[in-house]
Specification:
Helix content: 10-25%
Structural class: alpha+beta
Radius of gyration: 17 Å
Number of strands: 6
Strand order of the largest sheet: 1-2-5
Distance between the termini: 23 Å
Largest sheet: 3 strands, antiparallel
Length: 140
C-alpha cells in the first residue's frame, strides 16, 4: 500500500494508519502503526497505557518505508482508544494544546464508563477546552 501511495506522489499526500488484527479467542492483538497517533490501552482498573510504537512513518511519504508489527495480549475488559491529532492538537484561547497528557488524564477519570460514555465524554472535554476558538481549516 505504501509503495502504491508513494509512487508519483509529487504533492506529498499521505495517510496515517493504525491496523490491528485481534484474535478474539486468545486476546492477542497484532498491530502496526503507520504514523498515526498511538492508540491508548484502557484497563478496567483505570490504567491508561500507550501502545508501544512499531516505527512506521505515514503511508505515501517514502517508497522505501519499512513497517513492522508488535503483539500484545488484551485482557477481559480492556479497550483500545484510537483518536486523531484533532483531539490532542485542539487549542484553547491561550493557544495551549489539549495534549496527549490531558487526554490520558481524562480517560483515567472515566474508569468504569461504557465505550459510548467515554467517546461522548472525550468529545465534550475537547469541545469545552476549545470553546470560542475558531476551527482551523486546511486549504488544498
Amino acid at each position: 500500500m505504501n509503495q502504491d501511495l508513494s509512487l508519483d506522489n509529487d504533492s506529498m499526500m499521505f495517510v496515517t494508519l493504525f491496523l490491528g488484527i485481534l484474535d478474539t479467542g486468545t486476546g492477542e492483538l497484532e498491530y502496526c502503526n503507520a504514523g498515526h497517533n498511538p492508540p491508548l490501552l484502557l484497563s478496567p482498573a483505570g490504567r491508561v497505557l500507550t501502545l508501544q510504537p512499531t516505527g512506521g512513518i505515514a503511508l505515501g511519504v517514502a517508497e522505501e518505508g519499512v513497517y513492522q508489527s508488535r503483539k500484545i495480549n488484551l485482557q477481559k475488559g480492556d479497550s483500545l482508544f484510537l483518536y486523531t491529532d484533532g483531539v490532542t492538537e485542539a487549542m484553547n484561547k491561550r493557544e495551549e494544546l489539549f495534549s496527549e497528557g490531558r487526554l490520558i488524564k481524562e480517560l483515567a477519570e472515566m474508569k468504569g464508563k461504557s465505550i459510548q460514555e467515554i467517546v461522548t465524554g472525550v468529545m465534550g472535554k475537547v469541545s469545552g477546552f476549545s470553546a470560542g476558538v475558531p476551527k482551523r481549516t486546511i486549504s488544498p
